[in-house]
Design brief:
By secondary structure, the protein is mainly alpha-helical. It contains 5 helices and 2 strands, in the order αβαααβα.
Length: 170
């Protein structure tokens, strides 16, 4: 019984391996360095500038809120000896709540910044993706993978030059 099971498993594994090898031989994978192409796009500097400007605005607002909190804390430190225990506890709780709101604001601006980057960079990445699709179809590739996802790849499958030409890049 055990021998039959081992034979069955060996035949089954051989069948799976054969099917996978056959499938892999019929599908071609192209490799594209999207980071490199993205850095060459003429729209990138203005997109970077828009993101940087937005980031500056957000961080300026954060700095203003931090300054207000620091002033409140300094004021508390200067006056705390004159407060009753109840008032001292109330003021400390208020400072803790303000600090929690500041941390929440920081988290919000970080997510806002990521959202802004996605929105600003999307048209650029869409152009790259569309050019890569066109080149892949022209050259008979079934898939296009980013070069940064591989440890090793055959240089003959790199389509950077063709995509750069399709996008009009040098």
């Amino acid at each position: 019984m055990k021998k039959r099971l081992n034979i069955f498993l060996a035949v089954f594994a051989f069948g799976i391996l054969s099917a996978a090898t056959s499938y892999a031989q019929t599908k071609k994978i192209a490799v594209l360095n999207t980071e490199k192409i993205f850095s060459l796009m003429p729209e990138k500097p203005s997109a970077d500038s828009a993101v940087y400007k937005y980031q500056e605005e957000l961080y300026k607002e954060l700095a203003a809120k931090q300054k207000v909190l620091q002033e409140k804390f300094a004021d508390f430190e200067a006056k705390k000896d004159g407060y009753s225990a109840t008032m001292k506890d109330l003021k400390q709780k208020e400072l803790q709540e303000d600090n929690a709101r500041l941390e929440e604001f920081y988290t919000t601006i970080e997510s806002e910044l990521v959202e802004k980057q996605s929105k600003v960079y999307k048209p650029i990445t869409d152009k790259i993706i569309n050019a890569a699709k066109e080149v892949a179809k022209e050259k008979g590739y079934s898939y296009v993978m980013d070069a940064n996802s591989f440890i090793y790849f055959d240089e003959t499958d790199v389509i950077d030059a063709a995509v750069k030409a399709k996008l009009g890049l040098k």
